[in-house]
Amino acid sequence: MSEIAGQTGPRGTATAVVHESYSFACMRCGHGWEQSYEIEHHTDADGHEFVMYVCGGQVVPSPLSRPACRNCDGHVVRIMRAGQVSAVRDAVARSRPPQAGPVEAPKAPEEAPTAGAAGAVGEHHHWHLSDLLHPFQRKAS
Prior knowledge:
Largest sheet: 5 strands, antiparallel
Oligomer: single chain
Low-confidence stretches: 1-10
Strand content: 25-35%
Radius of gyration: 35 Å
Number of strands: 5
């Protein structure tokens, strides 16, 4: 199959025209896009068949031969069935949380000062490992 890129205008010699759409995702920069093509099937003077990819009335190279990213011109591009990129964009838009503002940590409720093991009222108690393990210790009999 051969292609003629850059041609414009009527191409009335097409024996068949097929409409195809593809989704593309660049593996280099992550850009995604979708594109539809008219694929015109032609026969040359010698009887050999060839196709022309038409996009927006302009003959373009086949997107399947060496696709290039529209964002970074990278050539590591994944080609998928139509609708993949728009489906992901819609899902992201639906699941996007509201924009966050400043975050404040919740304040602990104020404890009433009590007297007891901690000593005087309002005195800070420094905990030791032995204090934490005390309820688990066995009493010797």
